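hey so i finally got around to running both of the ones u sent me last week. sorry it took forever, my laptop kept dying halfway thru and i had to restart like 3 times lol. anyway pasting them below in the order u listed, first the sequence line then the structure token line for each. didnt double check formatting much so if smth looks off just lmk and ill redo it

first one:
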Amino acid sequence: MDGVSDTEKPEPDLRVRLVDVGAELLALEGAGVLTLREIARRAGVSHGAPRRYFPTHLDLLSAIAHRGFTDLAGRVTTTLGDGTAPARTQLTELARAYLRFARDNPGMYELMFRHDLLESGHLGLRDTSLPLFGVLVELTARVRPAADARAVAGSLWANLHGIAQLWRWGSLRLATGADDVEPLLRTALDAHLGPEAGR
């Protein structure tokens, strides 16, 4: 016997379990309750246990956000399929997938884009988030080859992010009287990409 009790041995899957609990807590109660101590309590481990895998609160938040980016990346890949649809069609579907993700995962969505709270260069966050923006840039360049695709894509992303947040808060519904986000999405795409052919 090595003299170490079962409760003292690190669980091989504890890191994953802590991220699972953090993601669940985020979905239920938002980023404000995501402390190492609360996640440890809900995971049923001592408050010091998370530090074996996440030395700081930022490390744990970044790991949880990484899961969100991985989920969003998977949705984008599924949405774009084999990539043979026209670029404008792909951009429209990507934008819809983005808005759906924001609607369905408000806590995670808020955390993912709070780079002021996250160590974005740590735990592979940039490796997951920047390629997503790269897809947006590449599709934008195909729709508007003469434009600065990175600037247009950044402006479009900011517009989509604003739609997602303001819709969630109820501000856009109040201001526009809209009961569906689709007309706002179409207007944003037209503003950044030009009117869609045939409309």
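and the second one:
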Amino acid sequence: MVTAHTIKILQSLDKKKYRQKHGLFVVEGNKNIRELQSSRYKIREIFSINPSELLWAGQAVETISEQELRKISFLQHPRDSVALVEIPEAQFLPDINLQLVLDGIQDPGNFGTIIRLADWFGIEQVVCSDDTVDQYNPKAVMSAMGSFSRVNVVYTDINAFLSESPNVNLGTDMEGESIYSFVFPERMNIVLGNEGSGMRPETESLIRHQITIPRFGKAKATESLNVSMAAGIILGQIFSAKEGLK
């Protein structure tokens, strides 16, 4: 049985200030929880309606009812298990050849998808402005799935970071050079701006080259792409070019 105190803490973790206060966040679903076994994340507690399905070595799993699961889950249709996980100390990885830099990304779904893309393409680090959505937002964690445990995410003053980085800063703009003709440098930061307003002017001033994903539709009526979709297309082209050089 989950105590009322624990339920209260779990329910509060949809808000960043309480995640920071308790140093905890929530991971839902057996698949996502299992992926933490080989990561730096330490699980405080696991609550499950069927503990035998987790097959977790050395971790106590508390059996709960489906009614209790609904109380502690952030999902409309709760899955099987909820884990209470400790937030580790942030670490900045130096000397990364290819990084994604997020300037004010606000949608947790977009954020989580970008983390999954980074994991898919082997990008070790994503650098975020301080006002980018929190990586431990429940919707961001769910959208990223297990990928959040394999990609290092850091929050910083991105203008200072971009100014000091040895990488070439690339931004996206409708008037930029086509990604299909642009020669990508060996070291680069791909800067992705806010969903509605794009990059801030002070960030844009630090961009060395602007690139764009050209539209091929005859009507050319679509104004823009979702930021996570754009990230996937750009990364696909970067790694396609790399494969072509082998």
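quick thing i noticed on the 2nd:
The mean pLDDT is 92.
anyway thats it, ttyl
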